[in-house]
Design brief:
This protein has 252 residues and is mainly alpha-helical. Helices cover 81% and strands 0% of the residues. The chain is built from 12 helices and no strands.
């Protein structure tokens, strides 16, 4: 199967994940680029940032139209992570590939377990009435920014549980707001990877981005039809499966 066809198929899946779940795109894009399209870990993490940044903007616009983006909270959360994201992006190229892959798997697995152990039904009934504590939001944003920079992920798979569990946001609003966080953090991390962006295979990355953007619109429509608790469980199970696979590959 040609690389372009694989890129189109993988891009469509990543777009669906971002549009419906507000995250999961990077955690799926990185292994797809490595195992299906032959990218190295550093190239894959850079390419995933490009893909997820462009796709997240598209999905965020759709969610914002429905009022599911909490701009103040999202910007505070994302702003705190800009510095760590840039620092992590600069350090990423110096980390051994096996360590980078294993770290990626561990973080993804931890986020998946946290979401599976939470109570999604209760979370989905919240009305965003909790007062956002700037210190708590900033602390969570710093950690997310660092992970984004080092691992080359948008951070949606961590932003969603943080916005729901730490800041008390409804699942649907967390999905939309996480797309704002993903966009800001990904752009910050990419600013420190300018050299590696130029070396990407755009004949593969281009179709990947196009399919992901189209998939994001379909994912937004899917999110309206599926309940918040169901979205959270699907998201967590996908994360866990990918994390286990990548951890085994890194250790063997």
């Amino acid at each position: 199967m040609s690389a372009v066809i694989l890129a189109l198929a993988a891009g469509a899946v990543i777009g669906l994940a971002l549009g419906a779940l507000g995250g999961g795109g990077s955690v799926l894009a990185v292994p797809a680029l490595i195992y299906l399209l032959g990218f190295g870990p550093v190239g894959a993490t850079t390419a995933s940032l490009v893909i997820v940044t462009l796709t997240s903007v598209t999905a965020m616009i759709a969610h914002a139209r429905d009022g599911h983006v909490r701009w103040r909270t999202g910007l505070l959360f994302a702003g705190a992570g800009i510095g760590p994201a840039m620092l992590g992006g600069a350090l990423a190229a110096r980390i051994p590939a096996a360590v980078l892959t294993a770290a990626f798997a561990v973080v993804a697995g931890a986020a998946a377990v946290r979401m599976l152990r939470s109570r999604p039904a209760a979370q989905d009934t919240l009305q965003d009435t909790m007062t956002v504590r700037p210190g708590r939001a900033a602390a969570a944003g710093v950690g997310l920014g660092a992970v984004t920079g080092v691992l080359g992920v948008g951070g949606g798979f961590l932003a969603v549980p943080a916005l729901v569990g730490v800041l008390g946001m409804r699942m649907r609003n967390a999905v939309g707001t996480s797309l704002l966080v993903i966009t800001v953090n990904s752009l910050a991390a990419l600013s420190m990877r300018a050299g590696t962006v130029e070396g990407l295979d755009w004949a593969v990355v281009g179709p990947f981005v196009g399919a992901a953007i189209l998939g994001a619109w379909d994912g937004k429509r899917l999110s309206v039809k599926v309940s918040g608790p169901a979205l959270q469980r699907i998201f967590a199970l996908v994360l866990l499966a990918v994390a286990v696979f990548m951890l085994i590959d890194a250790l063997l």
